[in-house]
Amino acid sequence: MPNPRPESRPLAFVSLVSLGGGLGGVARYGLSVFVPGAWGLFVINVLGSFLIGVLMGLVPKPLVRAFFGVGMLGGFTTFSSYAVSWSWALLATPVCAVLAAFLGLRVTR
Asked: Per the similarity annotation, which family is this (predicted)?
């Protein structure tokens, strides 16, 4: 019986994460054009966290989670913004993001 864990197929895992990360980064840029600045980052991070919660509640397959969760939503959310900008929106992001992920998980279960 083949091992369904992502570590058993590292090339597939890395490929899916890479492709998803690229798509997520493009989606983040697209949304940041419409909602610029710190509030745009806040919306992106909270929305991405909510979608991660939904994903974890709905999708049991590790490679699908790798593509959408680690890759696409990892590339979509941008917690690295703390390195360049501080504001109320960015300070509130961790709390709101965790609550959004919890809510997304609860909604799907």
From this structure: Belongs to the fluoride channel Fluc/FEX (TC 1.A.43) family.
Asked whether residue 20 is marked as a ligand-binding residue, the answer is no
Backbone angles phi, psi at 66, to 5 degrees: -60, -45
List Cβ neighbours of 48 (8 Å cut-off, separation of 6 or more).
Answer: 73, 76, 77, 97
pLDDT digit string (tens) for 26-82? Answer: 999 999 899 888 788 888 999 999 999 999 999 999 899 999 999 999 999 976 665
- Written as one string, the DSSP assignment of 41-54 is HHHHHHHHHHHHHH
Q: Check: CB of residue 66 under 8 Å from CB of residue 19.
A: no
Q: pTM of the predicted model, to two decimals?
A: 0.83
> Which of these ranges, 7-11, 16-20, 70-74, has the smallest mean pLDDT?
7-11
Structure token digits, residue 72: 């696409």
Distance CA 31, CA 102 (A): 23
